[in-house]
Amino acid sequence: MEELIKMMLAFREERNWGQFHNPKDLAISLSLEASELLENFQWKSSEETVATKRQELADELADVLIYAFFLAEALDLNVEDIIRSKMKKNAAKYPVDKSFGKMTKYNEL
């Protein structure tokens, strides 16, 4: 993972784009890229989109992930640490015995 992050940061630095990557603009870009990912599903079933737009989905998901990593870097957050912390919180909010096989939000379990 560390090698991948270094590659993304090097790509950005080679183009001097770091100057534009403040937390606000990265969060906006992350949201825009997530919308572009979602756009692939518009007016199609999930199955149809996955079958016919696989490369587009991969490209847009990569953009989302890249901006997410850039945002974590801008906020000086360790991605592994914040994911582990959030998974612990999710486990407490969604205990297996109450949430197994359900899509109910935690406050309604």
Indicate the multimeric state. Answer: single chain
Strand content: under 5%
Integer average pLDDT? 96
Q: Separation of termini?
A: 36 Å
Number of strands: 0
Helical percentage? over 70%
Give the radius of gyration: 17 Å
Question: Can you give keywords for this protein?
Answer:
109 residues, globular, mainly alpha
General description of the model:
By secondary structure, the protein is mainly alpha-helical. The termini are far apart. The protein has 6 helices and no strands. Helix content is 71%, strand content 0%.
Topology:
Blueprint: H1 2-14, H2 23-39, H3 46-52, H4 54-74, H5 79-93, H6 96-99
Helix pairs in contact: 2-4
Short description:
The chain has 109 residues and is mainly alpha-helical.
